[in-house]
């Protein structure tokens, strides 16, 4: 196995034994980027020179030091909606084509403190709105398992960088499935933590009450390592939870004996690709052999989740994206007649179609006369969905579902019908509405060799249970650190 | 329910967006379809349900009233498309 | 037909916290443009607000001082609209659950007392400043963005410009006392909007109202109310209907003009601010703030009457502002002569403030200096008239009264030996006066006294001089 193909914990072993240097590791992944990035287009901008320089600096420092932290010297990528001082942060939008933040996202500060080595900023759907990364204003990221297929979205670039071994791990953001769905499509591990667990400071807001940052990794153990670094209270984020520090690797390998895993028929309904169903059934069988008990659970109101999600997320987005007005930063239209025209031209030219659609939907849902019917109603439905999950988790520890109804679809396949694209999020959005954690791990391949993702959900702050459940399956099935059929030179 | 072109134009103005005739027609269709889908919500009686604004019961998060460093004028204006005399510049405002 | 003016007010007050409402930038007024900003108040992508605890405390204090109920549960909301002075394109404010509700403030106009209802007080952020100094555009200064405000909304209980003014003054007085704001109108720390309608006297129904914005002084408030009520009455007399609209007051022209009609009114799309969590205030917190409230003007005035035996008028004047009351109390603490201090503060100090173009806040003399001066007068070391001159000198130089008296040789001549010699000479030089006195004309004493004052350039202690004159004249007559 090549160095760049290894997991973080494998690299950690080599670094700790001084068998390789940080420079070796970084050079390997930079070479890999040079070899395949033009085929996958996972990154919007690269910092490879700075990364190699940082690696050399770190090697010099580490030579005189016995201990290193788990992410020290590990090259990674950040979704381009996390602010990085002095490094362009575009959100894959023309609106922020030249935006150079004078501040860092809290997660970037934390990873820098850990000694992480930033390789670049990854592609995404513009302002994280989308399920295929086709809404990027700059490039189409391709699924390394089939370059004609989408990587999923909105954190498609982050998923692909890990799947194509052009980063050891990446961070994405998940508002309605934007980590889990691309993780599923690309055959990697992707986790959306409990709302409030990871600081949102410096994450360019899409829908504030739903957004959450989380990791993409090659296996479950790496997921725990990255979580350890990014979880924690941040006084700059009022919604950040103030809890005692957890080491997510501690409970990872405890097994699932006696664990109650729920299966709900509402997640196995119409439109589910047969191979996805089959693969999930196989996973259930594996869990049984591992000593978990499988219980039937059911939801009363899951059908309403997608509508509620699109109302809440679009309403919040319409307000969050109002600040892009061409006055203080970012794009400004070249020609305008007066102030109102400056606003309209700038915003109409600076935003892409999907972003404009969501702003329109959200503005409508909040406008005079419609607030009660759409926005308020959605917030009430949110209460109901939450109660549904509470009731389900009264009967099981973990809920097992498909991450998405299908495996990755073709580039351009769903771009003409927004509603059809929205329906691909049907299994992921209820999680954000309830604020609970969810992880997607690979559980097989379909007939075309495309990865299938299994989603594990748990109540608020059940990350340890989810990771141990995920690890047990991964360990037993051997579906770990999957390699896309992408050559060394593409 | 479907969205009229007037609705689209009204909302576009609120959102400070502008669309061509064709775009308005397409948006009325696309947004109408999403709203029609959202109509399923109206089937649910929520009259006695409290709205959930925050999924977690966090409250009273405050900051001490202590001054921290500001950006310099140059840093504040560094990303501005147009500036003059240490200020952001916009077309003349009458109001 | 007799008309009645119905007025409701909205008062915006900048709170005197050190930092802004959602970030740690200073709130200081009058700094260079865009030097008190950070990513949060610039509304940059990805930043988040954290509520300043002092804002909650000050708003609670203001609410208690204005007799409001303090909400156990309140929350922040977003008010969405586009304007260059609003970086996020929404103002973080409070919509349906404000921090204070249902207060009352008593006012008095022409001896008539009246209670004005307060509907609510909410907390929100101030906007930036637009400067019209550029030749071909408008400039934006973000320094003021995020300065904390409270907005006080009244019931439509006010009936005249005088009542509006009395109410505004009372609110300023109370808030300045409680220390939540300096209420400096010239710095925009206190601003008024007026909702005004006209109805037939005796009617219970409210007429169509207009909202007038941008009133930044008491003068503007009075003039705008007078102008708008007159305008509406004229319209009604012509048989026209009043159009519901927002109007902008132009203080230089003394007129108002339509800003936008009801149809053009903003659709603010309020919704709960997802980036901020609810404010939940326990009774113990509210009680604590209540117990820490300073003595408010009404109570203070009564205490001045009871404790210092001051006339009601004096007590009223001295308690008009917290600064004046503090000066008075500091002086009384050093020198227990409340009436003497009151007289000087009410009669002598105001013209000097005016002359020197300063206010009580930045007065150049200290209570201790005033007390030193009053003691000099009381002890007859200088005359009252000299005292006034010394006070004037104190204002312009900041010197201590004792030093001024010494430097200028203003001390009264109370040395009997020296005075006796002068008086002996004057009496000898004016035998006619002595004769007149002998003949029973007491007025001649006045002439002699005048001569003594002339000779001593007014420094003779009048009382001592008179005693000596009488003694010397008696000697001459004997």
Question: Helix and strand layout, with pairings?
Answer:
The complex is a heterotrimer of chains A (490), B (95) and C (478).
Chain A: H1 8-16, H2 22-40, E1 43-46, H3 48-62, E2 75-79, H4 106-113, E3 117-122, H5 156-163, E4 169-174, H6 180-186, E5 189-192, E6 212-217, H7 220-230, E7 260-264, H8 274-289, E8 293-297, H9 305-320, H10 339-350, H11 353-366, H12 371-393, E9 398-402, H13 418-423, H14 429-434, E10 438-445, E11 451-457, H15 463-477
Parallel strand pairs in A: 2-3, 2-4, 7-8, 7-9
Antiparallel strand pairs in A: 1-3, 4-6, 5-6, 5-10, 9-11, 10-11
Helix pairs in contact in A: 2-3, 5-6, 7-15, 9-11, 9-12, 11-12
Chain B: H1 5-14, H2 21-38, E1 62-63, H3 73-77, E2 83-84, E3 87-90
Antiparallel strand pairs in B: 2-3
Chain C: E1 3-14, E2 51-52, H1 53-65, E3 69-70, E4 73-74, E5 77-80, E6 90-93, E7 100-109, E8 112-125, E9 129-131, E10 138-141, E11 148-154, H2 161-178, E12 190-200, E13 210-215, H3 218-237, E14 245-250, E15 255-261, E16 271-272, E17 279-280, H4 283-291, H5 297-307, H6 312-318, H7 322-334, H8 338-355, H9 367-378, H10 384-397, H11 401-408, H12 416-429, H13 431-438, H14 444-455, H15 462-477
Parallel strand pairs in C: 13-14
Antiparallel strand pairs in C: 1-11, 1-12, 3-7, 4-17, 5-6, 5-16, 7-8, 8-11, 9-10, 12-13, 14-15
Helix pairs in contact in C: 2-3, 5-6, 7-9, 8-10, 9-10, 12-14, 12-15, 13-14, 14-15
InterPro entries (chain A): Amidase, Amidase_CS, Amidase_dom, AS_sf, GatA
Organism (chain A): Acetobacterium malicum
Keywords (chain A): ATP-binding, Ligase, Nucleotide-binding, Protein biosynthesis
